[in-house]
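Dear colleague,

Thank you for sharing your sequence with our group. We've completed the structure prediction you requested, and as agreed, I am returning the results in plain text so they can be pasted directly into your records. Please verify that the sequence below matches your submission; if there's any discrepancy, let me know and we will rerun it promptly.
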Amino acid sequence: MEGSIRRLASESLPPGTYFAKLTLPQWQEHQGKAFRLLQDREVVYGNLIEPPARGFPLEYRNIIVTSKDPARFSLDIDTPYHLAIGRGAFTTPQQLKYDQQYGVEQHGDIYYSLRGNKVNPKKILITFPGFGPSTSRISYAVSYLKDLTAHDLKDTLMVCFQDRYLPAGSYMMTDNAGRPLFDRINRAIEELRTRFDIDPAEMLFFGASKGGSIAIQYAQHFPAARLLIAVPQMNLPYYFNKPFFRNNLFLSDPLRRMVQPEDNLRQYFREGRTIDYFYTNSDELSNHSLIELVKDVPHLTKYRIDGGHSEVARAALPAMLGLIREFLHGPQHRSFSCENVRVLPQEHGVQLQARLDQTGSTIGTANWFIEGWLGKTRFRQLMTDHSYNFVKYTNHNQRLFPAYDPLDALSAVVAIEPTRTTWTGRLPQGVVAAGHDDRLDPSSTPLDLEAKQTRSYALLDGDKLSRSSYRSTKANADGDTMELHFVADIDSDVSMIPIDRGTHRASHIAVVELLDGWDLAELLALRFVIASGAQRLLMVLHDVEPLTEAAEALQRVDWPHSTVMATTADDASAIGEMAAHVY
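Please find the predicted structure tokens below.
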């Protein structure tokens, strides 16, 4: 009876609301495919099938449903399944053991563990968790930072929050009933702060990936606090338009309506908050082309790490631990000499090689960066250890880009040790990497769907940069279509050109001129339709060149209801032939 009693005691959902557990015993034949669980033909959950932990069934726990009658549910794939429905939350022995190991406690419907000084702390370190695998037996983790010792935390209370909502977390924005959590969690943070009379300037919010997005949200009421984040998602609806989230979190209206992390972060930039931000250019889905291009923000330090989304926190762990210990114990700065720097121009970028003196060559475990300034913003690009200890360099994936990197303001080579010591070696005088890009400066401004005057927009994916000019207006309040008109000249008037819209109406109409070709056009179109909240996407080509490249790019848009058309008969015929060939 223990499991049943624990479930009943776990949480009370509103009347008519239940927890469900879906088990797929024959998942192997559907591995890699998407599935959806429907209640009365409405999607209540979906995911991409991945193998479960070895020796365990594939199950998805704590799906929120509004009926306890299994007959009202169905799967959209042909495979046996079992659906358990009840009033209490489902868990696993592995989750229970994990919670006990890390001291996770339930406080109403908020979950966290406490570490460090719980009697008279002078500081508070608050951490938020990232995502685990969707098939994990431990669905709800904490960011425990096991490398931090009791000595590190002798003056600090560490609060490790758990995102224990829905099947794998709700970004701590809603509880299991879909009700906002923001005020409740803020009260919990403020209660801990006031209980120990902690100065807000002695608070640090930390998180990576999902945890970074949560940290941004909950730092809102603490402008004096320090913010340390790695690869956070800037725009949640945009990030959720991927196979793992498209039929669960993407469908959440509360997450779509909330103030997005991007908006909060831009506000923090205006306030001049102290922010350390780790990212990679290869993470367009998370970045939303904000951190790569932002500049001239005081007290912001950008740390660019090469690699994929999941590799950043691991690769930059020495530096992140160093920054946390700097917060805990105070800064510790030392210097060495950088004897010379070689500038190595490459296609679309610049690589650098630095030679260190004897002191620099003996520095132990550390992350090395080349440092420069983008106005008031400090920029640090990760460097690679050479086989010779006295040489550090930027490899091909760490190269600098003339369009948006501070090639004329490089100032130092920096090493950050996990012990908190930061070493600085000033670059020799006269080291300037030539090769400034003569294109217009890329903008990091947000997309505005009610921009009646022409505005600029830039997006970046890896080493590809795409700028555009656009204007946009709201059309019909009951419209279901985001209408995008691609033109050769932004001053073109397309309002009088007849378009076959069928029975659909535009919610927004935008006119776009691409300034750097069609490479990232499909991403731009996706941003427009998700920002609009429309169900459909209509993309219209007006005498653009080259037509074939444009049509092929737009037909790659990852949106279920999208159409590409042209305004001339010949162009429309060519697009029809391409579409027929593709499908």
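Summary note from our side: The chain is about 20% helix and 30% strand.

Kind regards,
the structure core
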